[in-house]
Design goal:
- The protein is of the alpha+beta class and 315 residues long.
- It has two domains: 188 residues, GAF domain (Beta-Lactamase, 2-Layer Sandwich); 91 residues, Beta-Lactamase.
- The chain is 33% helix and 19% strand.
- It contains ten helices and ten strands.
- The strands form two sheets. Strands 2-1-5-4-3 form a five-stranded antiparallel sheet, with helices on both faces. It has a five-stranded antiparallel sheet with strand order 8-7-6-10-9.
- A hairpin with a 5-residue loop joins strand 9 and strand 10.
- Helix 3 packs across helix 6.
- The chain is elongated.
């Protein structure tokens, strides 16, 4: 965590402690987790099947390749801070805490005080909670990092958390959960729109175009942005949804959307920032032949366009 991240994290933790105090929590309080029965667990899984599926796809391979030999537990929780799934080494936690890492356990701050999952849900921010930063003494054997997962409309849909005992190195865990939560969010976004929308991936360098930190724009056939991830808005320095590609880049939308898929494309934003890009067409949508007429929405507006002269004279 760099100095800025530490300062932000400290502020979030201080505000969390204030909320806990306002709720009347006592630091000596030891909450008892609610254990769901089989029917309730099945319903919880059914309600969050999409999130679970995409999280499994992104998290499990990374866990097996990178974290399999680490004493840590990774949790997926919903937007109410209820645990949906866990991966990892159960030896990470003390026996009395094990029920809190099972599906159905709820980590909301008003129940468990300041903690990684509950505080990430409360703030919508990534956070790392060190041992003595937990409000409840019962949780101070843990270090937890958690980052929010956002749905295609940028609403909080879940949280990914990584927990270990307080005596293991924590240098990279916050960055790791941020990376994985971004991967899950991107997958939710791409899968929802892959059948009938164009996808434009943006990065500062061509080498990182497939990174979870790339920006993603989802466009309809008229090149209007209908969804984007937070990174795309950050790169463009504008909330992209509702804008056409012509509003965002110096290149015409025809040039962008007819570019060969999976091949590098250089774009310049209206703010004069140069970005590397890649276009993915809707599933089953072939590239238009060079001689094929473009849809009206993608045709350049110039003197050869019917009605151009009349429109210009009216202006």
């Amino acid at each position: 965590m760099n100095d800025n991240e530490h300062a932000v994290g400290s502020g979030l933790i201080e505000q969390s402690w204030e909320r806990c105090t306002a709720w009347g929590l006592d630091q000596a309080h030891e909450p008892i987790p609610v254990e769901l029965d089989g029917t309730q667990l099945a319903e919880l899984e059914r309600q969050h099947r999409l999130l679970l599926t995409h999280a499994e796809t992104e998290v499990v391979p990374y866990y097996r390749n990178v974290l399999a030999h680490s004493r840590c537990l990774m949790l997926l929780a919903n937007r109410q801070a209820t645990v949906l799934k866990s991966w990892g080494d159960a030896r990470t936690t003390a026996a009395r805490l094990k029920p809190w890492f099972r599906p159905g356990a709820n980590w909301q701050e008003h129940l468990c005080g300041t903690n990684a999952i509950g505080t990430a849900v409360a703030t919508g921010e990534a956070v790392q909670i060190q041992r003595n930063e937990h409000f409840l003494r019962a949780n101070r054997s843990l270090v937890g990092s958690a980052a929010p997962i956002f749905d295609p409309h940028k609403n909080l849909t879940g949280v990914l958390g990584l927990f270990s005992d307080a005596y293991l190195p924590q240098a990279h865990t916050l960055g790791l959960v941020r990376l994985l939560s971004q991967s899950v969010g991107n997958r939710l976004l791409r899968k929802q729109f892959e059948d009938d929308h164009f996808q434009l991936t943006l990065s500062t360098t061509a080498d990182n175009i497939d990174s979870p930190w790339s920006g993603v724009l989802i466009c309809d056939a008229s090149a209007r942005v209908v969804a984007s991830n937070p990174r795309a808005d950050q790169l463009l320095k504008i909330a992209a949804v509702g804008h056409r590609l012509d509003d965002l880049f110096t290149a015409h939308r025809t040039h962008i959307l007819t570019h060969p898929p999976h091949t590098p494309l250089q774009l310049i934003t209206r703010g004069r920032v140069r970005l590397s890009a890649q276009v993915n067409r809707p599933s089953g949508c072939a590239a238009p032949p060079a001689s094929a007429p473009l849809p009206p929405a993608l045709r350049p507006w110039n003197s050869a366009t019917p009605g151009y002269a009349a429109a210009r004279n009216k202006a």
